[in-house]
From TrEMBL:
<dbReference type="InterPro" id="IPR057724">
    <property type="entry name" value="TCTN1-3_N"/>
</dbReference>
<feature type="domain" description="Tectonic-1-3 N-terminal">
    <location>
        <begin position="2"/>
        <end position="101"/>
    </location>
</feature>
<comment type="subunit">
    <text>Part of the tectonic-like complex (also named B9 complex).</text>
</comment>
<dbReference type="Pfam" id="PF07773">
    <property type="entry name" value="TCTN_DUF1619"/>
</dbReference>
<dbReference type="GO" id="GO:1904491">
    <property type="term" value="P:protein localization to ciliary transition zone"/>
</dbReference>
<feature type="region of interest" description="Disordered">
    <location>
        <begin position="116"/>
        <end position="137"/>
    </location>
</feature>
<comment type="similarity">
    <text>Belongs to the tectonic family.</text>
</comment>
<dbReference type="InterPro" id="IPR040354">
    <property type="entry name" value="TCTN1-3"/>
</dbReference>
<dbReference type="InterPro" id="IPR011677">
    <property type="entry name" value="TCTN1-3_dom"/>
</dbReference>
<dbReference type="GO" id="GO:0060271">
    <property type="term" value="P:cilium assembly"/>
</dbReference>
<dbReference type="Pfam" id="PF25752">
    <property type="entry name" value="DUF1619_N"/>
</dbReference>
<keyword id="KW-0970">Cilium biogenesis/degradation</keyword>
<feature type="domain" description="Tectonic-1-3">
    <location>
        <begin position="137"/>
        <end position="290"/>
    </location>
</feature>
<feature type="signal peptide">
    <location>
        <begin position="1"/>
        <end position="16"/>
    </location>
</feature>
<protein>
    <submittedName>
        <fullName>TECT1 protein</fullName>
    </submittedName>
</protein>
<dbReference type="GO" id="GO:0036038">
    <property type="term" value="C:MKS complex"/>
</dbReference>
<feature type="domain" description="Tectonic-1-3">
    <location>
        <begin position="300"/>
        <end position="494"/>
    </location>
</feature>
Amino acid sequence: VARLCVCDLLVAQCDANCCCDPDCSAEDFSLFTTCSVPLVTGDSRLCSQKAAVYSLDVEANPPERIFKLIDQVNPSIFCIHATNYKQALYLKSPEIPTPENFDQLLEKFGGATFSAEPDSWNLDPDAKDPPEANETSRYEYGVPVQTEDAFLRLPSPVVSSWCSDANPAGFLVNQATKCIRSVSVEKCDSIQALSMLFYINSSILAVNITVQSIVVQSVNGMRTFLSTGDVLRLPMVLDELCINAVLGVNYHITHTDNGEIIEAAAAFVLGAISREALSIEQSFEISFTQENTQPVPVSGNPGYVVGLPVRAGFQPQGYPFPAALLFAALALSSNKHSQLTILQSTSTQDCLAAQGTRAPVLFGYNMISGCTLRITAAMKCQLLAQTLLDVLTGQSFPEYVASFGNSQAHDVLDWVPITQLHISEQMISHTLQSSCQIPVSLGIEVKWTKYGSLVNPQARIVNVTATITSSTLKQLPSGRERIIPITSSVVFTDISSPAEPSYKAWPTINIKLPFDFFYPFV
């Protein structure tokens, strides 16, 4: 139990206030304010077991960590005296029924009782191990990606903005970091973190990291894509410049559906460093894609993250679910199909000039935008109404919104239909002749709630309403003009119910138990 530590999350680093972290030194313990996990035990169902107790002696100078190993007794009368059934400590893969072995399995396990002892199982010793037997190259979510010497490095700032190379890349954890690296032009060829070899010289178990592309950046920031990306370029000093220094690395990992990495590639941004520079900013990114699938951007895992785009899509004809999903993450200047976007304000405030310019709806951000439309008597009502509708909703307004940030297209219940409402209001005008109904505003209300544990609630969208408001515009006489404001808005509403104590759900029983109800126990 002394080796167990549930708060030890960082690899080869000391976790703050984690008194059982073996990576922490006495100097680290002196800076702790409390022990986040004061008691560590094994199986709570055991009758008697060892327990590790951690505390801080704040009166000492400097403060010290106190560790004690005590015997803990379970007060329950129902407890496990000894874990003597070793087969219960692991899961044995069952034999898969096939047409060849079905009768044999039916004879062995088809009765009212059967023996579960492993020795009594008639296993074929010549049979090959199932695929689950070899787990050395398979990963679970968040496990550091192993290399031949250690783990795949993804430098990141830890305490300050300076780069730390001890940050491991976790499996299926998409990350993007930026940090500052101290450099010296005279020694740039000997600084490992500036060389491409530092990031590709170790293979991920049996998978070599290949160079996918190289982009060279000049001193003034101009970038050039190299057609021969497989050429290794090492940093070197040339004309008082350090060229081929690594400014950015983008890892792309391809894996199977059972967690086995089959391909790893790295895209580099190399640049030149002047002699006056004492430090540079490096950027690092890693993404994971399952084989035979297209990478899908997410806006949270699972709940939405504030500031990321609200994911939307269509339900194509013939499909019972939104199959084609296109997202708003990359559309700031153009309205791509099936994005939840609103009109983006421009400097000219001209609605006709702003047509096609869209801004993504970002989760948690209340937004408002608009433009003005100059109407003349020569404008046709039907054409004007359709033009304004395209300005407000875009060329293709989505039908569904993902309830979670990582909702998949095939999960039917993870998609919320967008309810569209149309409201008409009268516009007062002293001009006469015929009237015209034109849309003047689009209001989107997104209702969301906190889902899951109270400790780590996840944002979930439960309802989306798009309200288009139209006004009646009287026909203008010849030679007259009018300027009408057109607006779009998005409002996010938290409809989470406040947490209530669970005991309120239980009824109160006002009875008196007999004095010997618990006999012979106290």
